[in-house]
Amino acid sequence: MSRNSGIWLLSGFLFFGQYFDSTFTALEGHEVKYRAGIHLDLPTFDKGPILFVEDETLMDGAEGGNFHPVQINYRVGLIQRFGNFEAIVENRCLHPVDGVSNGIKSQEYKLIEVRYHF
Questions:
Q1: How many alpha carbons fall within 13 Å on the CB side of residue 12?
Q2: Is 86 helix (H, G, I), strand (E, B) or coil?
Q3: How many angstroms from the chain centroid is the CA of residue 21?
């Protein structure tokens, strides 16, 4: 069903990934090996902006092959399409899980982005 049918449906995806040959580290210096999370889109009204939320967990490769979360990232925002242009307004928060190893606190930022689709 589409938004035009009068029924607005939540859509989204689950994701899992593994980093290879990477020097990517979490806020507190943990080497990041994996990422997993959920992304959800919810139309607000017919031809209006789409509200999105995303939760991403970064994990290192802890001993014994277990997944060990080291950082959790949150995104919330709106996307509006205008022909070939798309405007995105979002707030993102980055949070270390244990908050002790390097003492780096969470980070947060707001972003306005414009995209041109071709």
A1: 16
A2: strand
A3: 22
Average pLDDT over the chain, rounded to an integer: 86
d(CA 89, CA 53): 12
Cβ distance 117 to 84 under 8 Å? yes
CB burial of residue 96 (10 Å; 0-12, 13-18, 19+)? buried
The mean pLDDT value for 79-87 works out to 93
Structure tokens given for 96: 């270390």
Q: What is the residue extent of each domain of the chain?
A: 3-116
Cα gap 45→8, rounded to integer Å? 8
Provide the whole-model pTM: 0.79
Q: Are 29 and 101 in contact (CB under 8 A)?
A: yes
- Between CA 58 and CA 27 the distance in angstroms is 10
